[in-house]
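FIELD: query
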Amino acid sequence: MASAPKTLQDAIVYFSDFENCKTFLVSLRWPDGTVCCPQCGSSRVTYLSNAKLWKCYEKHDRPKFSLKTGTIFEDSQLGLDKWLPTVWMIANCKNGVSSWEIHRALGVTQKTAWFMLQRIRLAMQDGSIEKMKGRVEADETYIGGAARFMHKNRKTGKRGMVGKTV
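FIELD: result
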């Protein structure tokens, strides 16, 4: 990336160009510059510029893959021109961002903005844009509703961890 965008407007303009998105994500996913197949790990790939895909020359199903394959962006119809400015907003706003703010700034629906926020926050906790794989472990999570939302026969009148499953 030549120079990082300083403002949201700069980020929107910068990431509206697919080549800038491609350069940014390639440097993020493959820091050494060698693009590898997410299916088999082979570096015998070639870029198909018309389709904006890479093709792996190893024998396996799904030899073609895109920048989104294997990342939090994969199952989304949204383009990188919406995802990357959203990532920029979350990373650069010290007080956080709401889904309504993303909805207004990028012109997506509030529901879409909420979906994007959930995925990006999850990726930021993990420290990678790659999807979670393998076993996932959570510490000290209490699951259950607040007492004020329970039927009066189930309420204990206590707050906190009472009535919740660890």
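FIELD: remark
The helical segments are 8-15, 18-29, 80-92, 99-106, 110-126.
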